[in-house]
Write a structure and sequence with these properties.
- The chain is an alpha/beta fold.
- It has helices spanning 21-29, 49-54, 71-81, 100-110, 165-170, 181-190, 212-222, 229-238, 247-267, 271-278, 286-294, 299-315, and strands spanning 9-14, 37-42, 61-65, 86-89, 95-96, 116-125, 142-145, 161-164, 195-207.
- Helix 8 runs antiparallel to helix 9 (247-267).
Length: 316
């Protein structure tokens, strides 16, 4: 039995991806389960991205325009304009296997109560082609996960998921954050139920093209950023008695995020900022003591060690 309301609305935020957006949209339009519509929200591109989208002669593609506000507000505009009960997301430089939507549709049929479904994914660097269709992907093992438990959050990535439109609207949509706007939405959605994920890797996260995450990493090398707004979201939810039953899981998830963010700061030589973050961890295990100890190493030594580690990783 196909998933609810077969035919996804696909939302694509776009900003200066002229070299990639055509391949991205082709991977969407060539799906074995045809999308109902593909809504592209341009955020003020100046590199020919708009012209690349306009050159695609397909009635399913709708191009909307907004001022440069970031991917969160752009996706919210797409959600507001969408007609499908389910919204699938893909960034303008990522790629799908031809049966990606078919995999998501099968997940909806098997896990009808989940507000979010997602496929597996992998990373790749340019130049790259869409992953091939695996006929077995639709029947690949799947299951429901608690987003807050252990490292389940690593199984949820924006360009690999679809969300129930009514659930994402009820959760408030994407936050207007410079980074972490997607994580903020997953946190709120996870309060309403488990997510369904497939082991089939039908989405490709394309790196090496000057995307937002690479820009953030470059900024991180120069100076420590302000604390992630996701931590403020968790703190607010912990103060809300309506979510008392989920407080323990939220607290553990927040501790995990603090340790991860601190590790990034340590890699880039920002030991003091890492210790500030780690100071808010409520349950301190071996990982906490490791990163607290390493953060005491002088920043120049930490940055040199990180360069050596990355060089060794590339050579291997």
């Amino acid at each position: 039995m196909p998933g609810e309301n077969t035919g996804f609305s696909v939302v694509v935020p776009l900003y200066n991806k002229a070299g990639q957006v055509t391949a991205t949209l082709r991977s969407v339009l060539s799906q074995t389960l045809c999308p109902r519509e593909v809504i592209v929200i341009d955020n003020g591109s100046t590199d020919g991205s708009v012209e690349a989208v306009q050159a695609i002669a397909d009635a399913r593609v709708r191009l909307l325009h907004e001022a440069l506000r970031g991917p969160g507000p752009a996706r919210n505009r797409g959600i507001a304009e969408a007609s499908g009960a389910w919204i699938a997301f893909i960034d303008a430089d990522d790629l799908w296997a031809p049966n990606h939507l078919e995999v998501l549709d099968a997940l909806i049929a098997r896990h009808p109560d989940c507000p979010l479904v997602g496929s597996g994914f992998r990373w790749a660097t340019l130049p790259v082609s869409p992953p091939p269709a695996d006929p077995a992907a639709v029947n690949a093992p799947s299951g429901e996960i608690d987003f807050f438990a252990r490292k389940n959050c690593d199984r949820v990535w924006t360009s690999a998921v679809a969300v129930r439109r009514s659930a994402v609207i009820a959760a408030g949509g994407f936050a207007d954050f410079l980074a972490g706007e997607d994580t903020d939405l997953w946190i709120h959605l996870a309060l309403s139920g488990h997510f369904a994920v497939s082991e089939a890797q039908t989405a490709l996260y394309v790196r090496g093209n000057g995307g937002i995450m690479e820009t953030r990493q470059a900024e991180l090398r120069r100076a420590p950023p302000p604390p992630s707004p996701n931590l403020a979201t968790i703190a607010a939810l912990l103060g809300d008695p309506a979510h008392h039953a989920r407080h323990a899981m939220l607290r553990a998830y927040g501790d995990m995020l603090r340790e991860r963010f601190a590790r990034q700061l340590v890699y880039h030589g920002h030991g003091a900022a890492a210790r500030d973050l780690l100071g808010g961890v409520t349950s301190r295990g071996r990982g906490w003591w490791l990163w607290w100890s390493v953060s005491l190493v002088p920043g120049a030594v930490l940055r040199f060690g990180a360069r050596v580690w990355h060089l060794r990783h590339r050579l291997r």
